[in-house]
Backbone:
């Protein structure tokens, strides 16, 4: 197994699923179609580049002195609408905010993610060992995505017609960084059900980090992923809804949100790595059901159970939904005994049609 920077084999993960970009690329409006096609082409290039880097290996840097103190070590770079990474450094750890709101949002989002994992679960950065957090903003022109490439975060500015700046939603930043947490822990294969679990875990902790930042309870949270990304011309509220998968958007241009909420609607496809962004709605909904049944701050009970499974060492890289569900039942029992937490987890998986016994 190839290791990168002390972790496991990384994958290239984007926040906007290919089915949305595919739909946009087929539009009659050349401005909409061109931006989508260019984004798809850039994503394909970066995905290939990631595989090559995995094969030849990537350099590992020494742990910064600042990180050794238990504090984050953030660096924000500006690509200047080019595609060379990381770009020009424009903000370092501890420096004051500048005039670029995108830079400031990226810096804050990295910090919120670091703080959440440290204070909620005692995890020291995404690798558990103080990994510096780097992000590049203003990537390419009209780039309709954000991604984690195994080493750093990258944000596009959007085309301004369908998508706005990708640093706007905190959960987008947290979602992509959580792919790094998965990379350094369970290392879930990015295809089929394990790939959908990989995506779901990023949605789960992305939403929890937003809730943590806002001080929200499970009942107060919107459970949306990518809220605020769409322009006003789009009939939709977000990329995905954990509360009601399949309802995040219903738009003349983008079509209807295809996410599945239960195993009855599980999609068999070779596209999008076996439907990782569509079928992730099933474990997403299970988490929502468990968290809202328990109430309070969702990261304290349901989130703790999911984190225990992700980092506990028993989750196999090719785990199926049932494997993951059974581990959450065992984790709930181990941490909370035979209480309401166990009942909530069992009921949640039953409602989405995933067997736990």
Residues:
């Amino acid at each position: 197994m190839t290791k990168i920077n002390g972790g496991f084999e990384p994958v290239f993960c984007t926040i906007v699923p290919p089915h949305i970009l595919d739909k946009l690329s087929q539009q009659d409006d050349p401005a909409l179609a061109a931006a989508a096609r260019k984004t798809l082409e850039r994503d394909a290039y970066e995905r290939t580049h990631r595989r090559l880097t995995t094969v030849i290996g990537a350099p590992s840097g020494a742990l910064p002195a600042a990180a050794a103190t238990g504090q984050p070590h953030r660096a924000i770079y500006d690509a200047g609408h080019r595609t060379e990474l990381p770009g020009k450094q424009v903000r370092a750890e501890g420096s004051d905010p500048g005039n670029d709101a995108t830079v400031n949002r990226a810096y804050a989002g990295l910090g919120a993610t670091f703080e959440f994992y440290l204070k909620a679960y005692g995890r020291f950065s995404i690798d558990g060992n103080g990994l510096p957090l780097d992000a590049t903003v203003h990537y390419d022109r009209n780039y309709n995505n954000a991604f984690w490439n195994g080493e750093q975060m990258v944000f596009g500015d959007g085309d301004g017609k369908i998508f706005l700046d990708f640093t706007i939603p905190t959960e987008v930043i947290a979602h992509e960084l959580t792919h790094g947490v998965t990379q350094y822990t369970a290392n879930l294969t990015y295809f089929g059900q394990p790939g959908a679990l990989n995506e779901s875990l990023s949605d789960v902790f992305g939403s929890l980090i937003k809730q943590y930042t806002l001080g929200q309870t499970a009942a107060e949270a919107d459970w949306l992923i990518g809220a605020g990304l769409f322009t006003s011309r789009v009939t939709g509220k977000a990329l995905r809804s954990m509360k009601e998968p399949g309802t995040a958007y219903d738009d003349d241009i983008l079509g209807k949100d295809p996410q599945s909420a239960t195993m009855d609607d599980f999609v068999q496809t070779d596209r999008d790595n076996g439907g990782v962004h569509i079928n992730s709605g099933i474990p997403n909904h299970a988490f929502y059901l468990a968290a809202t049944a328990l109430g309070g701050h969702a990261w304290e009970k349901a989130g703790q159970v999911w984190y225990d499974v992700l980092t506990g060492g028993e989750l196999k890289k090719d785990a199926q939904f049932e494997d993951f569900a059974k581990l959450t039942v065992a984790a709930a029992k181990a941490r909370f005994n035979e209480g309401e937490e166990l009942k909530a987890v069992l009921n949640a998986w039953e409602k989405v049609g995933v067997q736990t016994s």
Remarks:
- The CA atoms of residues 24 and 32 lie 6 Å apart.
- The longest strand covers residues 74-78.
